[in-house]
Amino acid sequence: MVFRLTLAAIGLALLAACTQEQQNKLGREIQNWTGTDGVLEVYAGDKLVRRFLKIDKISTALGTDDGKPRAYRYGYGVLDENLNFVADPGEKRVYFEISDYTNALFFQNPR
Predict the structure, then answer these.
(1) Are the C-beta atoms of 43 and 103 separated by less than 8 Å?
(2) I need a labelling partner for 80 at 20 to 30 A (CA). Which of 9, 13, 60, 89 fits?
């Protein structure tokens, strides 16, 4: 029991010594390893027009020659064609891209 408490205390001390950006990076790396059941909803005005389920991550495109970030994001997810929050049989995993100017919301699946 004392050993576990000591390890926990050391872990908390190390985490507290990290900058906020280092903590965020560590959190993203853990999420990439464990996976995130993300949902991406795309809106046209106030109307939901597309929903993608089971997204692990959304990545920022980088230029091939200059390495600078591009004005769009991309990822893979199951296209929820009937917008029922369930990956039904027949709904396939697809590649998607969204612009920086897309009216979209990304969040962890609450189910």
Answers:
(1) yes
(2) 60
CB atoms within 10 A of CB 52: 24
Measured at the CA of 103, the angle between CA 99 and CA 104, to 5 degrees, comes to 85
Q: 8-33: per-residue pLDDT in tens?
A: 766 666 666 666 666 666 665 555 54
* Contact (Cβ atoms closer than 8 angstroms) between residue 61 and residue 72: yes
Q: What is the tens place of the pLDDT at every residue in 55-101?
A: 988 888 888 889 888 999 999 999 999 999 999 999 999 999 999 89
- pTM summary value: 0.67
Token reading at 27: 């959190």
Amino acid identity at 49: V
Cα separation, 79 vs 91, whole angstroms: 6
85: CB partners within 8 A, 6+ apart? 39, 51, 53, 109, 111
Amino acid at 21: E
